[in-house]
TrEMBL record:
Topology of this chain in the membrane: Peripheral membrane protein
Molecular-function GO term, any one: actin binding
Compartments where located: Cell membrane
Protein name (record): FERM domain-containing protein
């Protein structure tokens, strides 16, 4: 019974043990979970991941896990659970490139292989595990943008479209005082130059630039040199082994290419590198951690195997892969060309459509404008017809006014001729009157002189009479008694003399009266002549005024006939009229 019971208990324990365990595998662009059998080896899990991803170039990759303060690669020949993997559930592995090619364009055949390498190298550059200059960082970023977004389209890729993308190492961003927009502008300038490059081509161009960086594909380990405990760095890559100073990972102090190494031996903490040239010294270095030493040896063996494999003829599998990849690239190239042609044709069709729509809109606008212009022209035609009718009526009116003006002009001209004739006659009369006045003045002066002579003669006669009387009185007084008869005779004589004297006085009076009468007549004639001259001047002035008014009327009629505004009527000033009629 006890034996049977113990057997049943053992069977029960076996049933309770899980037959599977969970694994989470993280690639560069995805996460996968698998349920693995307990007996699975590392190769079983690795092959499952490769099949899931679709990867055939498996020799570059491995499953890496974290152990304490370092990392290790899952061994393919041992069971997964027998290795120092974490005891978590699920167990986390990172599917990464373990070995790097010497020439990416020749060795990376599959597109998925290129893509995984591109993502890993890009992350190493951004995490500053691989040093990259600012200029190369911008160029690499432009290829990464081309691989992600395709061809640059200014209408679609507006400023700020790279704001959420991590494209440059923080060291580069901190090195220059530039804003994110300025960096984006620099990256976009290169990005615009990559038009027409497909995603796989952009990723390959990225890797071709990255493989020339000094830290590309190098795994670094801290070592010490024998007996002196000098701190150094060991670098393992596809080319060979390199020894660096601790502060410089770019330029190695010493290098051992795989082609120049005869043997690498490992004994606990000591490594020995034996050159192929026996004349050269053997190089020894020490690593304190056993786990790190195993990792170094594993990387050395793997890189050396790949180095030797590259120098041999490709296997049938690799040749098939390359042939298939070549055919696939050719097919994709043809597809891209067809797609490019279709895209070009579609863009041309869209441009033609846009052009047709634009032309349609333009024609619609032109038709609308033409209709509006037609309506305006019809309105204008009606308006012009109305204006033409008005203009015709105005023309008739103006013609009528012009005829009236012509008649008035002829009448005024006739009147002007008549006025000129009357003026000429009046001027002639005036000249005759002036001549007559001159003659009268001359005659007056002559008569005045004659009157003066007569007055003088009269004065002389009066003086002679006075003297004769005086003399007669004197004679009378002296001879009065003796000559009575004589007196009588004298009286007779005296009487006759007195008669003569009296006769002379009467003539003088008569003459004086005639002179006075003639003078008065002359004065009246002169006054009458002056009145006539004044009337002639007044008539001449009135004729001139009428002539000016007639000329102004003709000018206004001509202006009206020509369509000019009429001149204001002639309004003589009052003082002119006073001047014309003043004596």
């Amino acid at each position: 019974r006890s034996g049977a019971a113990s057997k049943m208990s053992i069977l029960g324990l076996k049933k309770k043990q899980p037959k599977t365990f969970k694994v989470k595998v993280i690639t560069m662009d995805a996460e996968m979970e698998f349920s693995c059998e307990v007996k699975w080896k590392g190769k079983d899990l690795f092959d499952l991941v490769c099949r899931t991803v679709g990867l055939r170039e498996t020799w570059f990759f491995g499953l890496r896990y974290t152990v304490k303060d370092t990392y290790a690669w899952l061994k393919t020949e041992k069971r997964v659970l027998d290795q120092e993997v974490p005891k978590d559930s699920p167990i986390t592995f990172h599917f990464l490139a373990k070995f790097f090619p010497e020439k990416v364009e020749e060795e990376l055949v599959q597109e998925i292989t290129q893509h995984l390498f591109f993502l890993q190298v890009k992350k190493q550059i951004l995490d500053e595990e691989i040093f990259c200059s600012p200029e190369a960082s911008v160029l690499l970023a432009s290829y990464a943008v081309q691989a992600k977004y395709g061809d640059y389209e200014p209408n679609f890729h507006k400023p700020g479209f790279l704001a959420q993308d991590e494209l440059l190492p923080k060291r580069v961003l901190m090195q220059y005082q530039m804003t994110a927009d300025m960096w984006e502008e620099k990256i976009t300038a290169w990005y615009a130059e990559h038009r027409g490059i497909a995603r796989d081509e952009a990723e390959m161009d990225y890797l071709k630039i990255a493989q020339d960086l000094d830290m590309y594909g190098v795994s670094y380990f801290a070592i010490t040199q024998n007996k002196r405990d000098t701190d150094l760095l060991l670098g393992v890559d596809a080319q060979g082994l390199h020894i660096y100073s601790p502060n410089s990972k770019l330029n190695p102090n010493k290098s051992f290419p795989w082609s120049g190494i005869r043997n690498i031996s490992y004994s606990e903490k000591e490594f020995t590198i034996k050159p192929l040239d026996k004349k050269k010294d053997v190089f020894k270095f020490y690593s304190s951690q056993l786990r790190v030493n195993k990792l170094i040896l594993q990387l050395c063996i793997g890189n050396h195997d790949l180095f030797m494999r590259r120098r041999k003829v490709d296997s049938i599998e690799v040749q098939q892969m390359k042939s298939q990849a070549k055919e696939e690239k050719a097919r994709k190239k043809v597809e891209r060309q067809i797609l490019a042609r279709e895209k070009q044709m579609r863009e041309e069709a869209e441009r033609a459509k846009e052009e047709m729509e634009r032309r349609l809109f333009q024609l619609q606008d032109e038709a609308r404008l033409a209709n509006e212009a037609l309506l305006r022209s019809e309105e204008t035609a009606d308006l012009l017809a109305e204006k033409a009718q008005i203009a015709e009526e105005e023309a008739k009116l103006l013609a009528h006014k012009a005829a009236e003006a012509e008649q008035e002009r002829q009448r005024i001209e006739a009147t002007a001729l008549k006025t000129k004739e009357e003026k000429r006659l009046m001027e002639q009369k005036m000249r005759e009157a002036e001549q007559l006045a001159v003659k009268l003045v001359e005659q007056s002066e002559r008569r005045s002189k004659e009157a003066d002579h007569l007055k003088q003669d009269l004065t002389e006669a009066k003086d002679a009479e006075r003297r004769a009387k005086q003399k007669l009185l004197e004679i009378t007084k002296t001879s009065y008694p003796l000559t009575t008869t004589t007196i009588t005779g004298g009286d007779l004589a005296l009487g006759s003399g007195s008669m003569r004297i009296d006769f002379k006085d009467s003539d003088m009076k008569r003459l004086s009266m005639e002179i006075e009468r003639e003078r008065l007549e002359y004065v009246e004639k002169s006054k009458h002549l002056q009145d006539q001259l004044k009337e002639l001047k007044s008539e001449i002035e009135s004729l001139k005024l009428e002539e000016q008014q007639q000329q102004a009327g003709v000018y206004s009629l001509r202006n009206e006939a020509r369509g000019y505004p009429p001149e204001p009527p002639y309004m003589p000033h009052s003082n002119v009229r006073t001047t014309l009629h003043a004596p």
